[in-house]
Task: structure prediction
Amino acid sequence: MFKNCTECNRIIFSEINANCYQCCKLRSIPLSGNKVVDDFIRRYTLVNGEVSIEFVPFDKFKDVKYIGEGGFSRVYSATWKEGPIANWNDEKQKYVRHGKITVALKELNKSKNISPKELNELKIYFNITLNWKSDNFNYTNINTYYGITQNPITQNFMIVMKYFESGDLAHCLFNKFFNLSWCNKLNVLKDIASGLRDLHSTNIIHKDFHSGNIFITGNFCMNAFIADFGISKSALDDDDEIYGIIPYVAPEIFLSHKYTKASDIYSFGMIMWEVMTGRKPFWDRNHDAELIVEICINGARPPIVTDAPKGYIELMKECWHPNPNERPTATELKGKLWNILDEEHDLFSTPTKITKTPDIGPVTANNPRAIYTSRALSAMIKSIEFTKCLKIQDYFTKELEFDIDIDNNHSNCHRSGRLRKLTPKKRCQIGRIVKHNHFTTAGEMKAQLEEKNPELEVSERTIRRELKNLGFVSVRPRKVALLTEKAKEKRLSWAVIT
Result:
């Protein structure tokens, strides 16, 4: 007997059911009552006849225990009493579930009034799974996400995902470093590269790639899975905010370049160093503006140790190369790690040793100002704009050997009446004018500054003195052509023509 579904009007072939197969499935899945979440669930619930993401009422969990927190969330473990969906029972017209499992609940900070952007992590996972299922893969080194729930006390939403008893890579290295063979370590890195390849093949950039976002399973035979895509984005998106942990952020990002897949590869290089030494990169340094300047301008990287298989250190250096175009792709990275792992397997009787030395092994305490939780960094980067310029002045002086016309009496300029009219805000404007206009004269700068601040009267001489105090290079006109040519070669752009 033919009839129409009472909900979607599809034609159905059933004398018993009033609704079609799809609508029966949809009606059996609970919703949250929040429009943003429910619209998301409806959009991504049924794909190829399967439930991809669901809302799980909080009373379906028990034994909820706090584990820890990151920059944007708090994480709990919990027992999901019924577990995720296994399949659909046609006869009973309901879903059959896997049964009790342990899961992780990631509570998103201040998410009571959740926005679609905060569901980015689930959206990315959904798109990745679609990609590898369409390619007939049934395995990926990406964490498994089941859906979303809501904390009844805080009203914050929580992402439901797979729980890893071994924890993240950072804790695994701290607890087991000297018990892990190089074969173990290389296998973990190969898995990470594989997961990164899956991300990049979907045109997704992680943006916050570090050892705290990589989870480990197993003891003897270990596997790794990438997680935490909360601030990941499409390579086509335009978002100027910078988040992360300073040692893992690629130098070009600090220099106002956009995130690319190569930025993730740089982070992978830092993870390789961490796997090699058992320590977090720059563990003994303050994670501040000075470190950023050293990374960007002086090319600072963690110290190299020789306790590694053949080819490992060379690959690590390729990953953290200052030029993003010189870094390998995730696919190339995985292939090279396979080769290193194969050679290490061939050395079964004489494997690469992991020796306890002052440079190798976990440390019990990092520098108290070394911050290994993700945070917004844009404000800090803007605040060090002039510090970078000071370093660039040194570069011009040492490498290009220009005549630097520095006024020996520049220290007196802070006491001049005219200079006092230049507040810190106005001085920042001077710096931005130079940065955005590349090479400019003091006269042009005076005009731009007074255009933005009609009340300000300042001489060209005062501007030149102030620029010297801020660290900008001042060159005589006869050097301008050479400076322009050299700066283009070195991709430098800060100079003032006197």
Remarks:
- The mean pLDDT is 78.
- The CA atoms of residues 227 and 358 lie 32 Å apart.
